[in-house]
Design goal:
Length: about 575
Amino acid sequence: MFKKISWNYMSDKMQPVPFQKLLDWIFQEYINQKSIFGIPSSKFYYVKEKGDEKIFDECIETPIGPAAGPHTQLTQNIICAYLTGGRFFELKTVQKLDDLKIDKPCIDATDEGYNVEWSQELKLDESYDEYVKAWFLIHLIKNLFGLSKSKRGFVFNMSVGYDLDGIKTPRMDRFIEELKDASKNELFTNYKTILIKQISNGNLLESDFGFDKIKLEKLISEIENISPHISNSVTLSTMHGCPPREIESIAKYLIKEKGLHTYVKLNPTLLGYDFVNDTLHKLGYNYILLDKNSFDHDIQYHDAIPMINRLRSFASAYNKTFGIKLSNTLGVKNTIQALPGDDMYMSGRSLYPLTINLAYKLANEFNGEINISYSGGANNNNIKEILETGIRPVTFATELLKPGGYFRLSQIAETIEKNSSKFDKSLRKNTARLKILAAASLSDKNYSKERREINSIKIPKTLPLFDCYIAPCQEACPIHQDVASYIKLVEQKRYEEAYELIISKNPLPHITSYICDHQCMYHCTRWDYDDPVLIRDLKKEAVLNGYDSYLKKFNDTVIAGNEETKQSNKIKVAV
């Protein structure tokens, strides 16, 4: 039934997968492993209620999704984000120059994020192809697994850059027009035909997905009626240093000539050099060096406010939504030397205090009457507070590059679901809440460098060719205790076995479970998730709960094996 999927070795060059192969991949993997692109069915996000939030005249079931970046270039990435709760997809920024050589590595997310990438790594036509494939496959998956109660419930938001002349070129114009209406592109017709042919095999859906004839006919009807209108909105991304007049001209062109709801991405440099530099230093990021000239060349606050006002009025006259995207990355000097080049762009948790303060400053400037799309250090710990201010949608990039990946998005979606009754969905900003949130961020330990007080936990030696995983905690321990194994035994309450494993290498666990410099904890992989495991405390748990039973078993074993040991030899030993 399916063509066998062959795999290529990982490359630093993106390789789009043909639509039919993606279909085969999805069905094969789900039938054999109950997962899609590595996302297990247990992690699929099921929307319990019909989505009622509106943006760009569309309903979205959750106000979150992947930001324009590494998670919105390939079809598979977009699908993974949908499966785990993403419903707002800010597609990777495209521009006229689509044959760029991207130096690798181009992203480092050890703690705060840095990147030296630019726009898309694919050709314009390839990018378009990826988005059309994702459009069809999300509709399929939504209906196949019943993930949604809405007719659609998700939004594709295109992202374009970087100057007006480039956006007006025929190829860029075609890209925009055919995302607005894909019906004239043969890819749309071809993929619909392929998809209907695949699912018309009743035996497949009946045996593995429990579809009867009625459900199958309904699914085919849903596919036949997929809208060709993939996107009616855009987020404008411009180069650092782009003049305000150019930004305004592009935005007006997108609103008037292209008929798109338009958001303009703004830079954290609007806060001014002194505020940004002082904030980073107070939070412990003393090693981050800024270029004061970049602040002088970027759009200034006193120019941005009237520009935003004019664009709001302009969009209203054409019955389009206008808003701002906060924020772009922050340009800094490349001091870590993990990436090529002299400059890099900062994101992640170190950006949060800057972006949330910029959000407050601009929201307050417009008395809360400004649409804000947010991206800058958002995560599961602050998503509730961000949404309570009226900001939405919220998108993620650096957060999804951390261990856990898309599962972090699933966790965020669940947090939103639990607190949805607390959110004002009018899109008016609650400036009082935003003020509190912005002020708190400047001293919150979660955004300080101190929060991650360790450097790299990578093992400083060559790994073996096979069985190449070595737990960093075990390697860091001077006696190389089997940390992962005894933690697992403690988790299972198998304390005696845990104690026995510990003393096989550590004869003094009663002491080291209280007094130890525990290098293991400073090399715990959980640092990349949230907090390290308290390994020393777990050792103490094994000692307190496993010692007595182990000692009894030991004595019973020795006595049973040697009757003479019943008699003391009267030798005293000091340890």
